[in-house]
Amino acid sequence: MSETNTRIVTIKMRDEDNVAIIANAGGLPEGTRLDDGTVLGEDVPQGHKVALGDIAMGEAILRYGAAIGHAVQDIPRGNWVAESLVAMPPPPDLDDLPAPNGAAPNGEPLEGHTFEGYRNADGTVGTRNILGITTSVQCVAGVIDHVVKRIRDELLPLYPNVDDVVALTHTYGCGVAINAPAAIVPIRTLQNLVHNPNFGGEVMVIGLGCEKLRPEMLMPKGAECGTMLSLQDKAFTGFGGMVAGILETAEGHLQRLNERTRETCPASDLVVGMQCGGSDAFSGITANPAVGFATDLIVRAGGSVMFSEVTEVRDAIHLLTPRAADQTVARALMREMAWYDDYLESGGADRSSNTTPGNKKGGLSNIVEKALGSIAKSGTSSIVDVLSPGERVRRKGLTFAATPASDFVCGTLQLASGINLQVFTTGRGTPYGLAVAPVIKVATNSVLAKRWYDLMDVDAGTIAVGEATIEDVGWELFHLILDVASGKRQVAADRLGLHNALTLFNPAPVT
Ligand code: CA
User: Fold this and answer.
1) N or C: which end of the chain has fewer CB within 10 A?
2) DSSP letter, residue 288
3) What is the C-alpha separation between 26 and 356, in angstroms, rounded?
4) pLDDT one-digit tens code per residue, 336-380
5) What's the gap in Å between 192 CA and the centre of ligand 1?
6) Which of left, alpha, beta for 190 (phi over 0: left; psi -120 to 50: alpha)?
7) Beta-strand (E) ranges in 199-240?
8) How many whole angstroms from 408 Cα to the centroid of ligand 1?
9) Whether the Cβ atoms of residue 316 and residue 402 lie closer than 8 Å to each other
10) 421 C-alpha to center of ligand 1: Å?
11) pTM for the full model?
12) C-alpha span between 164 and 128 (Å, rounded)
């Protein structure tokens, strides 16, 4: 990072890089002299790259010390390295990845950090106390929406220890190839969502009666507090009968949830999901490294962290396999990458489909550059496990939970995997939120943090201008995670009531 008297701020990640990012709000005009002597040959927008030396046609463009692509023409020193000038390299060969390096880089144990959570019978801990109403098919969604509103208006005021009621409605359940091999993904996701720690072990399943996904498939074996209703049950006369039946059942669950209180839990009971969306060139400089620092803190405290988004790690997978705890974990990483390569290919797409117009406007040339910044969220810890989409977390420490990068799909899958809180970084800005678990939103740049002052929880843009370090923001985030998990602080999305719909990943055919 360099800074002159006129507060021209450029960010170069590694000594060997031949480009730097312009950090100044509004970008910098032609003729500006950077402190290494480079004079801008044209206007360069904020977040975009400037050539720090002459780059010949075909030469590698280096950022993070890695080639993010090759120049399609000569780029003179001081010129804007626009997206159209960068040819993307091929992805790392999955058959030729570095082996685990055997190091145990998790750092010193971090003792003494706690939060106030709801302890569940299965040992997990909720950060919220929510009545979840699971559904086996989309057909019932209208009735459930009606019931949820009635519960919120009429019953919740009677049960003050219950935070909310959330309907797990979705588009699955019928009209789908339920026996296709890939159907395991949406089915497993729905089965595991029921177990999210924020539902306190109370299971309420509403079905229709004739659907392919039988409601009993969503009822955990031996669920002591489970109830199941079907709208086609002959006991229900008309809409009023259904609603009354569901409300009566819900009240039993609410009574039990209302008896729960928060207790002091070690930070090792945290299960935090890391995600990004609407990324820009600052994501990999500010917010994602700060999130990575917080990831390492949670791991050192004995907690669980998940990172995800296959298409955003695919091009950096050669940097992750050396961090696998053993060969089994490394092979599982390769397996999930290969599965996704095939999935994309079968749909006639490839990894380049990931980057959005907003990413590119924000300065990210391609998925290679985006991936190098994205994996910073995983910190430096050893990767101890790999989950296929929708599987439940099995180990403490850092887990790669394979999911699409799509924000709401990743969010839904991480909830099924058992997160009790999510951290989400954004540079372009998104009002994203989840009803089931609090989402802490971290802005990558201060322009966004100021413009969306009431939608963002943390401003990591202070790192770009040297006002804070990655460690400062990482610790701030860690303490905020503990406060939010304790219910002491409310995240912006919850305060404003902004929650995205659950969105299942269904790689299997629809009939
Ligand atoms: Ca995402």
Assistant:
1) C
2) H
3) 21
4) 999 999 999 999 998 888 889 988 998 998 999 999 999 999 999
5) 21
6) alpha
7) 203-207, 226-230
8) 8
9) no
10) 15
11) 0.94
12) 8
